[in-house]
Amino acid sequence: MQPQNARFAVRLEFRLALARDANEVWDLDNLISPTLNAMEGVFGTRARRGTPQSADDRVDRIEAAKRLPSADETVGATIDVWVIEPD
Bridge partners of 83? Predict the structure, then answer.
């Protein structure tokens, strides 16, 4: 299936470092949006004028979480993507 015809489900798990100060707080939506925007290699690009953008409008399901890493993990993210059929 070509990206332009596919629909997607995405699972995101963000492992965040402890905040250094009260201003360093990550809202989950502020983590999700730039991550999906950076995934044009997976979703393809939107047909539009101007700067190309990720076709993240093809994402029909999102599961996301943020947490501190355990002792044996590093800060970062795990991203899982599936091609799905629309409901």
Answer: 8
Interval 22-53: pLDDT, tens: 888 889 999 999 999 999 989 988 877 888 89
Instruction: Please check whether residue 19 is in contact with residue 11, taking contact to mean a CB–CB distance below 8 angstroms.
Output: no
> Three-state SS across 4-15?
HHCEEEEEEEEE
For residue 35, CA distances in Å to 53, 55, 73 come to 12, 12, 20
- Sequence ranges of the domains in the chain: 3-84
What are the phi and psi torsion angles at 57 (to 5°)?
-70, -10
